Fold:
Amino acid sequence: MSGLPPVATIPIAELVLAYSEGRFPMCHNDGELYWHDPDPRAIFPLADLRPNARALRAFRKAGFTHTRNEAFEAVIRACADRDESWIDERIIATFVNMHSAGYAHSMETWQGGELVGGIYGVSLKGAFFGESMFSRVPNAGKAAFFALVAHLQAKGHVLFDTQYINAFTQQLGAIEVPRRAFRKQLELALLVDALFL
Structure:
């Protein structure tokens, strides 16, 4: 990287309002940023999420350790490092700004002192909005996901949004709900006095 970092495109107050209403930004192939508000909406049933015994054995065998918020920008850049990504430099700068303001957070997976997996998202009261995850070795992203789940459960979060469903998130336990039902869950989650840290 050279020169000045990109300017955060979306103001923090605008992002907080958008997330509180169920909207989130993504960069499209045409280079523009668009707000998304899908129907149906994908969520993880947070209270019921647990890694199975096979996953736990794999995590232990790999010797993974976890940290929170120690490598936020590295996590989001690793999430963007793929052939097709909705995360561009404007999104990165915007969410780094959100992280500095205390709204965006990451869970990192380490192996032998190297960052090998992670997940990041936005936390508002009792809601966590998962944005993206990555793995550089098998199961590293999944390990970060379940470490995040345990943290959210311990901190009293009640809603874990994953936006759109795909084969991987479905394997982790994601389900789809109508947008109206999601908005009701979000409304209730924003009344919960939970903090990420």
